[in-house]
Amino acid sequence: MAAAASVSLPGARALPTWSSSVSGESQSLALSSWAARPRSARPLRAPARMGNVNEGKGIFAPVVVVVRNIVGRKRFNQLRGKAIALHSQVITEFCKTIGADAKQRQGLIRLAKKNGEKLGFLA
């Protein structure tokens, strides 16, 4: 019988065996080859913005910004919250007067918010 000739190639690595995978010998080799891979060039998403899309736009936006700077942001937000609550109460009373249901009332409140954004009240 002929003996098998052993040929070694430069840079060739031996395949991992069951015993080497149990002992963890090939893990450092796998991690180093994984870390050397280039990452995909996926475009980064723009960060999510909370708030008004029309910020700074609208006919009342400059007035709102000036008042916010004079009064202070914290106090201004308190006043804005009270104004929004009062407006919602007015809409609710109007809906009771005309006999609109809760779904229609909610639609009117959403419409008021949209209009406030467009006019610049939420700048």
From TrEMBL:
Q: Name one GO molecular function term.
A: electron transfer activity
Q: Which chain positions lie within coiled-coil regions?
A: none
GO biological process, alphabetically ordered: photosynthetic electron transport in photosystem I; response to high light intensity
PANTHER family listed in its UniProt record: PROTEIN PROTON GRADIENT REGULATION 5, CHLOROPLASTIC (PTHR35709)
Q: In which domain of life is the source organism classified?
A: Eukaryota
Q: An example Gene Ontology cellular component term from the record?
A: chloroplast
Record protein name field: Proton gradient regulation 5
